[in-house]
Amino acid sequence: MSPWRWATVAACLTVTGCVHGYGACLFMQPVKHTLGGRVQFRPYATPEGMDNVPVLVLDHTAYLYSPAQSLMCQSADELQLVGVSEFPQNVVENSHVSVQGRLFSATSMHDHTRFLMHVITLLPDSPSRRQAEGQIDETDPTGATAKCKDGSYSKSKQHSGACSEHGGVDQWMDGSK
User: Fold this and answer.
1) How would residue 38 be classed by pLDDT, with cut points 50, 70 and 90?
2) Which of 3, 67, 92, 112 would suit a FRET pair with 103, their CA atoms being 20 to 30 Å apart?
3) What CA–CA distance (Å, rounded) separates 33 from 27?
4) How do residues 49-70 score in pLDDT, each as one tens digit?
5) CA-to-CA distance for 161 and 31, rounded, in angstroms?
């Protein structure tokens, strides 16, 4: 392939915001996105004292297009959650949630991650829904088909998608690779 064709392909991928192997980049606000992960409440020191900040640790690395920072997509493994006045009672430390909101870049000293999400909705994942979708059981290996890299177990009937939200498959219980 000629150098001009490679340059054209590279320019097209850059313009469309694709990250090879990971799909499209997510655009900043006003576009809404839904992401899943675990909520952690982290203490950060401020001039006024300690600030307990909700952070969403993403299930998968997200690639965000922030032209103010770079013309290339930026990776993000965690997002500070803003705009939430009160969390639902069943959302506690390390709860798995689905969050819909608008993404934006950090701009002040109160922003503790590179990217933030202004939350529109925050829904805890119910164990029954997670079992129906991925059939993940955090601790019980009985009947499991795979052990996930985060130590949880999958009872998925198919190899495809097993442990997809848990860092991938560490070991197949049937010994296959």
Assistant:
1) very high
2) 92
3) 9
4) 888 899 999 988 888 887 777 7
5) 27
